[in-house]
Amino acid sequence: MSDRWVVHLPITAPDLLRARVFARTAARLLARLSARVEPGGVTVSAEDEQNVRHWVFCDRLLPDRARCTLPADHISPCSRRDRWISRG
Predict the structure, then answer these.
(1) 3-state secondary structure of 57
(2) DSSP character for 4?
(3) If 0-12 CB within 10 Å is exposed, 13-18 middle and 19+ buried, where does residue 27 land?
(4) Is residue 2 within 8 Å of residue 19, measured between CB atoms?
(5) Taking the mean position of all CA atoms in its chain, how far away is CA 28?
(6) C-alpha closest to that of 40 among 23, 19, 17, 15
(7) Using the 8-state DSSP alphabet, how is residue 67 labeled?
(8) Would you state the pLDDT for residue 44?
(9) From the CB of residue 19, how many other CB atoms can be counted at a distance below 10 Å?
């Protein structure tokens, strides 16, 4: 059995866009409180299709080994704008 546990916290939103915005905001806030939060792994899903998940953050690896912190499906070049990324 793993020594790591994952918290699943169901929160409802009226559509995919607002679910992603809420998830991004919650992940960034929680990442400031604990280094154990992994915002790059945050996904959202429809309540009745929880096996179909949508990424919230891009999380692509950048040349300096940090991760892109922009929203998933962004069209601008990847960037590391936030502090939660690259904690080792």
Answers:
(1) strand
(2) -
(3) buried
(4) no
(5) 8
(6) 23
(7) B
(8) 93
(9) 19
Residue 49, classed as helix, strand or coil, is: strand
Our CA dihedral for 6, 3, 64, 54, rounded to 10 degrees, sits at: -20
Instruction: Report the Cα–Cα distance between both ends of the chain, in Å, rounded.
Output: 24
Which tokens is 48 given?
Answer: 């009745």
C-alpha 18/C-alpha 81 separation (Å) is: 21
Q: How is residue 39 written in tokens?
A: 């915002």
Q: Under a CB-based contact definition with an 8 Å cutoff, are residues 38 and 26 in contact?
A: no
What residue type is 24 in one-letter code?
Answer: R
pLDDT tens per residue across all 88 residues of the chain: 778 888 888 889 999 999 999 999 999 899 899 988 888 889 999 988 989 999 999 988 999 888 888 999 999 999 876 544 444 4
